[in-house]
Structures are given as structure tokens and as C-alpha cells.
Write a structure and sequence with these properties.
This protein is an all-alpha fold. It contains ten helices and two strands. The chain has one domain: Orthogonal Bundle (Hypothetical protein af1432), CATH 1.10.3210. Helix content is 74%, strand content 2%.
Length: 174
């Protein structure tokens, strides 16, 4: 069994009973992994994608992840875990610096954002509009001159192409 298969099993058990729109939560997890796979990222990123919401939304701990998948994956998952804040904007402002400091965490967060935007485009146009409106801030907080450009660029291109294509469509459904 590969590390990714093990991570998906751990995530499925940890997210048992949770939902994502009309789907079991694993639908979202698998979409994030699929996007990272299509973009050609390495195993540590794929495993981190599978576990990206576990610290935030389940009983799984940093040490559980570290013991099962190593410190690199635990650090990536920790980095994408929302910090406390009084509202969404404050939580994101408090979280983005730790994501930005880890280029692999940045990739995981972009893949998560793409999956959320794809889902909201299909089922919740108001949520998609929120993601569109946040995109400039999201990009400005997370883009870093310290990241290996070629590695993060694939994910940024996919995200910004999606936003641009939707911005150019007629506004009839939103």
C-alpha cells in the first residue's frame, strides 16, 4: 500500500460522517488529490492533500500525522490549517504567512482552492463569487519570491485561468 493510499484511508476514517455540500467529505479530499496529481506534484504533496483538513476538522493530531507520514507532511498539513480569528478574513490573514513560508503548503492550498471553486461553480454561485473576490488577496498573500517558481507556477496558472475564464463569462447566473 502506498503512502497516498494510507493517507486516503486515514482521511476517510477521520472525516467519517462529515459532508461537503451534498457529498461525503471524502469527495472534496479526492478532488484536491486529483488536481495535485494532474499537475504532477510529488508524493509528499499528494499525501498532504489527502490530509489537508484533518487537523482543522477532525480529532487527528500533528503528532499522529508526523508518526504515520513524517515531519514534512505534518508540517505541510499544519501550515494549511486555519489559525484562530474572529471572522474568515482574520483567520485567513493569520494563516497565510505560514502557508507562504512553505512552498509545498502553498501548492496544497491552491489545489484546495481550485477544488472549492470548481465545486462552488457547480453548486453555489454565491460561494464562487466570494472566492473570485478573494482571489487577488489570496494571490498577494501567498505568492512568494522564495518559492521555486516552476513548482508553484503550475498551480497558480490553473487557479488564475479558472478565475479569469469565469470573469469573462456573462454574469447571467451570478
Amino acid at each position: 500500500m502506498t503512502n497516498l493510499e494510507r493517507a486516503l484511508m486515514v482521511a476517510e476514517k477521520a472525516h467519517a460522517g462529515q459532508s461537503y455540500d451534498i457529498y461525503p467529505y471524502m469527495y472534496h479530499v479526492k478532488q484536491v488529490v486529483r488536481i495535485a496529481t494532474e499537475l504532477g506534484y510529488d508524493e509528499s504533496i499528494l499525501v498532504s492533500c489527502a490530509l489537508h483538513d484533518t487537523l482543522e476538522d477532525t480529532e487527528l493530531s500533528y503528532n499522529d500525522i508526523k508518526k504515520a507520514f513524517g515531519e514534512e507532511v505534518a508540517e505541510i498539513v499544519y501550515a494549511v490549517t486555519d489559525e484562530l480569528g474572529r471572522n474568515r478574513d482574520e483567520r485567513k490573514r493569520n494563516t497565510y504567512p505560514k502557508i507562504r513560508d512553505n512552498w509545498k503548503a502553498t501548492v496544497v492550498k491552491i489545489c484546495d482552492r481550485i477544488a472549492n471553486m470548481q465545486q462552488s461553480l457547480e453548486y453555489n454561485s454565491r460561494l464562487f463569487k466570494m472566492y473570485q473576490e478573494e482571489n487577488e488577496t489570496f494571490c498577494s498573500y501567498l505568492m512568494s519570491k522564495h518559492h521555486p517558481h516552476i513548482e508553484t507556477n503550475k498551480a497558480w496558472v490553473k487557479l488564475n485561468t479558472m478565475v479569469k475564464n469565469q470573469n469573462e463569462k456573462p454574469k447571467q447566473n451570478m
